Amino acid sequence: MTARRSRGLLATLVWLVLLALLITAVIRARYSADLSAFLPSKPTPEQAVLIDQLKEGPASRLILIGVETDDRGPEAASGLARLSKSLASALRKLPALPGDKVAPFASVNNGEPVAAQRDQELLLRYRYLMSPDVTPARFQPEGLRLALQDSLDLLGSSAGLMLQPLLTRDPTAELVHLVEAMDSGGERATVDGVWVSPDQKRAVLVAQTQAEGSDLDAQQRAIDAIRQQFGEAQKREGLKQTRLVVSGPAVFATDSRQTIESEATRLASIGFAIIIALLLSVYRSLRALLLGLLPMITGALAGIAAVSWGFGMVHGITLGFGITLIGEAVDYAIYLFVQGGAQATTGARHDGRDVAGFWPTISLGVLTSVIGFASMLASGFPGLAQLGLFSIVGVISAALVTRYLLPHLIPEGFKIRPTPVLDRRLTWLTAKAPAARWLVPVLLVAAVAVLWTHRDRLWSRELTSLSPITAEAQALDMRLRADLGAPDVRYLGVIRAPTMEAALQGAEQASAALAPLVDSGMLLGTDSPARYLPSQAMQRQRQAALPDTETLRAHFMAAAKGLPLKTEKFEGFFVDAAQAKALPLLTRDDLQGSSLSLGVDSLLMRQSGQWTALVGLRLPSDDAATGQPTQPVDAARIRSLLKSSVKVGEVHFIDLKAESEKLYSDYLSEVLFLSMLGAGAIVILLGVVLRSPRRLLRVVTPLLCTVIIVTGGLVATGPPLTLFHLVGLLLIVAIGSNYALFFDQRTHRGTPSASILSSMLFANLSTVAGFGMLAWSQVPVLHAIGATVGPGAILALVLSAVLHHAVPGAAADQV
Question: N or C: lower Cβ tally within 10 Å for the chain?
């Protein structure tokens, strides 16, 4: 057995062992499509609050439901109301679904007073412990007289219908005030007691799941249950002309996962098929095709395994990005087969030594790609770092298989059949290409002009630009929220404390601090969990404010003098006050079965071992013309009030819109810095290897021109750029360097040989096929990279040909 054959056998055995390990790792890997992987791993305290709400907050568990019809009129509206009641009833009664331990929905609301009796019982029993009006002064004669006068005034209003039967037990109207304070929602249209849209063509419901928003499997089961129960309710009510629409964060999250999974599968399949067809047309050999796929397959498996080992899970977008690896990994085999095959036509045996002539150029191109991807690996955003690790490991693995395995698997006498017509045309085009050099400055000037014109709106500043949710889905969500009269809560006070009691105390302190802003009209009010569940300390304080029975009776008699009240009928008031003074304090468990429970759960939660209380700020209605609040929000004043007034735990004031924009801005700044760092490292590497400023300029110039022209084209033809366009530009540099290096290597040998030109053309087509498919993706991450690298790869090859200098007869510079 010859030494060459022994090396080949050893390389094959090592590859087979590694392949088995990689396949095992890929099978065992955990896969995810949670877009939170593209949120920072080390956020600021404010960003941490925002991320917690996106992943596990109460809003992440909401499902907005619409039951629509195209018919109009009272009969159609009445039918929608019946269907809404039937659907809501079915959803409330659902048992635990397969895979869940509890019923899917914590609550289902459509306007029906399903918990009204329980709410009223709780509020009536605990009114003195829950009412913020309960202070010592309120039960002095002066305070009682003012409260009694207010109650008499209420009797003539709509609220008097609730107060009248309870007046003798609740003369200070604590129950009425509590109910009014808790009804913080906007105006909602109703038909037969259920919520409908203003045009009465849609009934609306809101469901909150038991599962956390990050549990996408449970969220999907809940959404599927809604669709199933709607179909059954349709049959029961005989309303076949209605349709169901669902929206909300839970729906967005599951739809995003489905989109990512389907896009990764669909685009990978199409891209793979195109590349297979291309390679068959080039190789015209099934065996060569199969051998040529080995670097790509090995690279993809190695990339997935590395990400799984490094991050514990593999994101669906990472798999979709793997399409790009298909396009680049097969390039190495093309260079080997086409250029090595050209050497075989001289009669030399095709073995490992056949790559020596062009492999230094390939290896340098691999290094530039690795450096480009390494800048992504350094990102503080796990999703982007995954893409970097996947690509680095995949490219290196594919290159190693091409260099050390394929030459030993290629049979004796193998060669790619010549394509004389194509070769002649490529040689002619390459010779003529420098004549079109004058077009480059024209394109550069046009691109720079576009960039200058759009300089104020080059980059998208919205975090939503990374979301695969369509504009139509976002518009539906806005319509359903408008139908529900849901306020747009942009500003939040956030109190984090080690115990629930401390968090509730912080929420009470925050609401008290913001009370002057409510009185001034800057705020309509605040939403606090302490409204539904006061802290134990506050409840004790209110119990202490209640005087004993005899004192209360004396104060009441003095306050009622001259008022149209029969004081002897108010014995129930004294009994209730005495009972309240001795009541066990209200706890979270006492709220079960009431709508107050939902209010607490929406604003108070346990996260990361701490309790978080949210205090929402309700703003005055927006101005119809400008879309801005009628009175500007003094964020600095609010932040100062909260910081100085809340004495427990950590307190943050969050402008959700501003914080999301800052999050994206930080993301963009980091990627911009890393991309510049990667590009700089590539230039330094090329300078060290080429050892000639002139050659370095010759290699870098077409890459720089390509980046500028592609950026101008993207800005001129599409929406603002995202950070993933920036990643794509870096990849253009990494991939395009291969073409520039080949032209540079052959510059002093005269016109590049036909084998080199053919291999570059075929490699370019495979790269464009891989990246180009991403441009059709609905996932912004993949679309941005594909739309950037696809045309960029073509332009990099063209400009490398146009800007190269052929010097016949000169000695070759070795790379």
Answer: N
